[in-house]
Amino acid sequence: MDQEFLNVLRCPKTQSPFELMSTEEVTKLNRAIGEGKIKQVDGAVVKKPITEALITRDHKTVYRIDDGIPILVIEQGIPVAQ
Questions:
Q1: Where in the sequence is the domain holding 46, given as residue range(s)?
Q2: How many domains does the chain have?
Q3: Is a pLDDT exceeding 90 seen at residue 58?
Q4: Which residues sit opposite 78 in a β-bridge?
Q5: What average pLDDT does the segment 63-78 reach?
Q6: DSSP-assigned letters across all residues of the chain
């Protein structure tokens, strides 16, 4: 993802800036997704693995990136504290 674009993006709920999740963080999250342990803000279980994601700088919420497009829908955010 282009760094300039990343610099202007903000969490739709808290307005916190984002960072790209590291490969290690994505792998760890996907492991938990595979075990059925991860839910979105709206309570739906996350079933699809993540290939790329944004995380708020306060490390509270993750938003997936699908086909290069950040999915910044509050209800589809993934709370980190799970």
A1: 3-79
A2: 1
A3: yes
A4: 62
A5: 96
A6: --HHHHHH-B-TTT--BEEEPPHHHHHHHHHHHHTT--B-TTSPBP-SPPSSEEEETTS-EEEEEETTEE---GGG-EES--
